[in-house]
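Weekend entry, working from home. Most of the wet-lab plans are on hold until the incubator is repaired, so I used the time to fold the two sequences that have been sitting in the queue since the last round of cloning. Logging both here for the record. First:
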Amino acid sequence: GQHCLHEEPPMSTHLTAVSDPDELARIYSELLEPSFPADELGSLEALQADLGDPGSLVLTLRDDEGLDLAVSIAFHDAGAGVLLLAYLAVRPGTRGGGYGNALMAGSLQRWDEIFSPDFVIGEVERPGDRADVVEEHGDPEARLRFYRRFGARRVVAPFFQPGIAPARHRIPMYLMLLHISPSARVGEEVDGHLSVSAPPLRAFIADYIAATEERPPTDPEAVELLDALGGDTVDTVPL
């Protein structure tokens, strides 16, 4: 996802759900494509196909002229009780206007109202991992600071973004938690460590890898990740 500083945006913005494929195509070309490397962004066609899915939600922050300032794309797995923030992007040239913060806060509230997930998860690049980082895709350190403002935690597990077609190139990332329901917490936070219920995360991640890569997650890298989530609980620390 992309980052913004914390200034309040103008009051003339509103959060709206996107259901029209043509609207999504415009958002894809104007906000998503400039914000993500090609190996981190799924195809427009796949995202459009998901628009009719009851677990798929595209939210855009618009001004009164209808200009899309920021977008979030999320997928909810009702069986696991896990919602994945797949993409968050801010219109190029508007970073620092507070739009990312307004979108994130509004999205978290809307997800809770619609889905009441036990977990809201996201993927974020580990700073220094990629030699091909380009400035227009945002600063990984600033992105971490952005999510930290929302209390994000990192799951202690060797996570990677599954390989998106056609390259199937996996990317090491942090698995972050942006929301943890009270029932998913196990005990209290001690010295920054908080145990959470692991089975929902494991079930979601196993399905996520299999669906994205179109093959079972049985290779050593996937097995290592799923084994780390294989107990009753898994440790989390501040992002």
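Second, folded right after the first finished:
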Amino acid sequence: MKRLIVIHYSELGLKKGNRDYFERRLCRNIDETLEGCSAGRVRRISGRLLLELQTDSDIDEIKRRLGKVFGIAYYAQAWTGVWNIDELCVTVWEILKDVPFESFRIDTRRADKRFPVTSEEINRDL
């Protein structure tokens, strides 16, 4: 299971013919800002950026530094998953078993609608 940080940006998407330039510049700024944090490279996907994390990545320091990068609207930690709801339940439990919380919410958004279970069914099962 691979850990990632999904990075959303806002106004870069509005920059018509310059969007590619601004996305590449934001990736470069993130790479420079995270120098020395054991973070992987940033890669672009449709409308977002993915930052691959390594096993020794300092998550708290990465989050602190990302909060100072101009152009980032939101970021969240993520993990790669599997295409099986039972294995997904086990993976989620492994991630959260040592995290204290009083309440929680699961809000699923399937980027790939070929996943054999609906978002509501995933929310309920998890």
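Plan for Monday: verify the second prediction. The two ends are 17 Å apart (CA to CA).
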